[in-house]
């Protein structure tokens, strides 16, 4: 168990997500997406346990975001949105909200952090950091 914690600590330390203005300005983000909610709904509809009953809160409008390459993630850039999701579990009860961040370019999702396909320590960390960066810090309400 200690080895696993040591490895996870190393990976998280290696994931410096601080981005400079030079990096932010080095890519072409393209035009802001207009159908971003539909794209995100489509993504979630095939991944959530109960997509019709899930509570999906769009916490931000699309904003430019640059995700630098780290040991754990590839470089991504585009228009990012922070979403909080509360889905039902297999027993039919809500599990509580969790954050997700979506990065879009040319009306398509190019990266997702957190959520059903990325439910791990690193995905959760990226989603929380990016939601905070976008202006919607995740605070668990119970």
Number of strands: 5
**Kindly state the mean pLDDT as a whole number?**
87
Query: What portion of residues is helical?
Result: 25-40%
Low-pLDDT parts are 10-14
Specify the structural class.
Answer: alpha+beta
Count of runs of 4 or more consecutive helical residues: 4
Net shape:
globular
Strand portion, in percent?
A: 15-25%
Give the oligomer, counting copies of the same chain as homo and different chains as hetero.
Answer: single chain
Nearest-angstrom radius of gyration? 16 Å
Please give the largest β-sheet: 5 strands, antiparallel
Amino-to-carboxy terminus distance: 30 Å
Q: Name the helix and strand elements from N-terminus to C-terminus, one letter apiece.
A: HHHEEEEEH
Can you walk me through this structure?
The protein is α+β, with helices and mostly antiparallel strands. It has four helices and five strands, in the order H-H-H-E-E-E-E-E-H. It has helices at 2-13, 21-24, 36-45, 121-134, and strands at residues 55-58, 63-67, 76-86, 98-105, 108-113. Strands 1, 2, 3, 4 and 5 form a five-stranded antiparallel beta sheet that branches. The chain is globular and about 45 Å long. The two termini are 30 Å apart. Mean pLDDT is 87; it is low at 10-14.
């Amino acid at each position: 168990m200690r080895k696993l914690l040591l490895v996870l600590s190393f990976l998280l330390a290696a994931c410096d997500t601080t981005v400079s203005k030079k990096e932010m300005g080095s890519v072409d983000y393209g035009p802001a997406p207009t159908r971003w909610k539909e794209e995100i709904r489509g993504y979630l509809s095939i991944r959530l346990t109960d997509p019709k009953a899930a509570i999906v809160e769009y916490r931000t409008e699309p904003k430019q975001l640059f995700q630098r390459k780290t040991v754990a993630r590839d470089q991504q850039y585009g228009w990012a949105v922070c979403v909080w999701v509360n889905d039902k579990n297999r027993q039919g009860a809500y599990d509580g909200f969790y954050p997700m961040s979506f990065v879009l370019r040319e009306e398509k999702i190019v990266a997702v952090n957190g959520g059903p396909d990325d439910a791990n320590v690193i995905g959760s960390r990226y989603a929380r950091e990016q939601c905070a960066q976008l202006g919607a810090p995740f605070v668990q309400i119970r």
